[in-house]
Inverse folding.
């Protein structure tokens, strides 16, 4: 059973803390993505990575950074958490180069910054 | 840039009603098109897909046809059930290798009443 696993379902952090959200996939996929999901705004791409150590900014990268040291793991880092980063965070992965490529998603991490 | 526009929700239907959720896209080239579904408390999962013009994707009674001339990929189901209540996302990607962004619409929340 293919899987994308996010390290936490729920997280509560204080303003100014450094926050790490971890995502691991077991499908040997090249591409990995971090989105945030907010009511009325849908899914907005924060960062994506198409290979180890490679990353590209998405639509809303400000206040975030990412790390991809191994193919199976893609980490999202909130350098200094703020209340406007309270959201649902979704990780996804895809196989590169196939027109039939399907995205596999983790269960999501609901982050609350207080 | 590439984008997806889908029907604003929420949509509320009675069981056995006909469903249409409109989706149009703007893209340079010929993307692959997808519908994803998110059930309450879960991550997104693939519902159906189409990779070239005039392809019809289908699954669980849902259908969508890739219309290049109208740049559309509308989701339809002839008779909805309460269990279809979820959020539906239209999406596109370019499976070209290298940088393959996944672009999503904002999502349409469907509620089906008994």
């Amino acid at each position: 059973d293919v899987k994308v696993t996010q390290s936490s379902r729920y997280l509560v952090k204080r303003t100014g803390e450094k926050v790490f959200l971890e995502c691991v996939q077991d499908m040997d996929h090249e591409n990995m993505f971090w989105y945030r999901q907010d009511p009325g705004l849908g899914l907005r791409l924060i960062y994506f990575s198409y290979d180890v150590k490679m990353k590209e900014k998405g639509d809303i990268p400000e206040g975030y950074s990412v790390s991809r040291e191994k193919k199976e793991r893609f980490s999202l880092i909130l350098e200094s958490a703020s209340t406007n980063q309270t959201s649902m965070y979704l990780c996804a992965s895809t196989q590169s180069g196939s027109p039939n490529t399907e995205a596999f998603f983790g269960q999501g991490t609901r982050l609350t910054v207080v | 840039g590439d984008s997806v526009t889908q029907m604003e929700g929420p949509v509320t239907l009675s069981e056995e009603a006909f469903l249409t959720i409109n989706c149009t896209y703007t893209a340079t080239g010929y993307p692959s098109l997808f519908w994803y579904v998110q059930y309450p408390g879960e991550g997104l999962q693939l519902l159906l897909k189409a990779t070239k013009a005039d392809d019809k994707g289908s699954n669980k009674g849902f259908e969508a046809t890739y219309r290049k001339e109208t740049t559309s990929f509308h989701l339809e189901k002839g008779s909805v059930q309460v269990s279809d209540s979820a959020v539906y996302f239209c999406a596109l990607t370019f499976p070209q290798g290298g940088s393959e962004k996944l672009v999503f619409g904002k999502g349409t929340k469907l509620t089906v009443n008994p």
User: Anything to note?
Assistant: The longest strand of chain A covers residues 42-51. Chain A touches chain B at residues 4, 31, 33, 35, 40-43, 45, 48, 50, 56, 58, 90, 92, 94, 96-103, 105-108 (CB under 8 Å). The mean pLDDT of chain A is 93. The two ends of chain A are 36 Å apart (CA to CA).
